User: Fold this.
Amino acid sequence: MKRVAILSSGSGSNAQALIEHFSTCDEIQVVFVGSNRPSAGVLERAEKAGINNSVFSKSDLNNGTLIQNLDVLSVDWVLLAGFLLKIPEEFCNRYKGCLLNIHPSLLPNYGGKGMFGMNIHQAVFEAQEKESGMTIHFVNEAYDDGAIVFQGRVDVSDAKSAEEVAAKVLKLEHKYYPKISAELITLAE
Ligand code: GRF
Assistant:
């Protein structure tokens, strides 16, 4: 059984998609959902799914407290899903090869500091990009810089707003993050 933690800062629709898909995978169990924001919708989603969840602070992330808590839960993989804090080196090293993120653009385009959520889709829309998409990648200590695992593309040439771009990309995220991450987790020794 591979034990998975999901970290999210927001509404958690990606976390929801992961939780639902993993509930159909015999070898994967979501044992923790964490957020750095007490008001994050993801915590309520975890509660409804009966999954252990809690809020942690930025200092917990940076001073090793979160790692200790995940170790107590014997977490094997950590999946970021709309998580907005930078992951410190110690955390990246502890979960090397078992730490994934989803980014709502075709990295390396529209990645890096400050490129998150609607900022991305607004920039893509204003640049009149013909296509956008999402990227699943391993996480290292630089923003959106780790090895790319998968990219999904979508035609946005007919998008009338940044919100329309966002909606198209989010659909791809929900479709692919659960499947691709489940394959990686299941295949890992
Ligand atoms: C998603 O677009 C994700 O790619 C990005 O932040 C957004 C989070 O949405 N990292 P949700 O909280 O999963 O609904």
Q: What stands out?
A: The chain has a mean pLDDT of 97. Residues 2-105+135-151+175-187 form a domain with the Rossmann fold fold (CATH 3.40.50.170).
